[in-house]
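To whoever is on call:

I kicked off a structure prediction for a single chain this morning and the downstream step that reads the tokens threw a length-mismatch warning. I double-checked the sequence; it's 139 residues and nothing unusual in it as far as I can see. Pasting both halves so you can look.
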Amino acid sequence: MASARRSTCPMACALDLVGDRWTLLVLRDLFAGKHHYEEFAESDEGIASNVLSERLQRLQRLGLVSVETCADNRRRKRYELSERGRSFAPVLAALGRWGLEHIPGTTPSGPVHAALSAETARLRARPAATKPVKPRPRH
């Protein structure tokens, strides 16, 4: 069952879904080309195994990640960004740019930067989805 929203603010709702550091770092690693549990676990930040499992399950429930069982080992899973997950690229790219500009001693990660830049460019090249505009009632 979906939990109640604390507000209708789009930023608050987005933060409720992906607003903790571990979720953002798992998304970062997916953009960097990681696909298997052990690859995420090897990240420098040292995510605990129970937290990693929960975040991967959450991302799957949210439709940001798809999961397949590997043919050669049925206990091993392959995680892949969905279209919805890939649409998060501009957000991660902006967060990374901000960190580079405002936090001394940070350095860009080549694979992450390249993947986010490519995905952001792909999203910008798509035709914009248009919402029908409802006429305003006249009083």
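Update from on-call: the warning came from a stale cache, not from the record. Cleared it. Sanity check on the structure: The CA atoms of residues 65 and 81 lie 4 Å apart.
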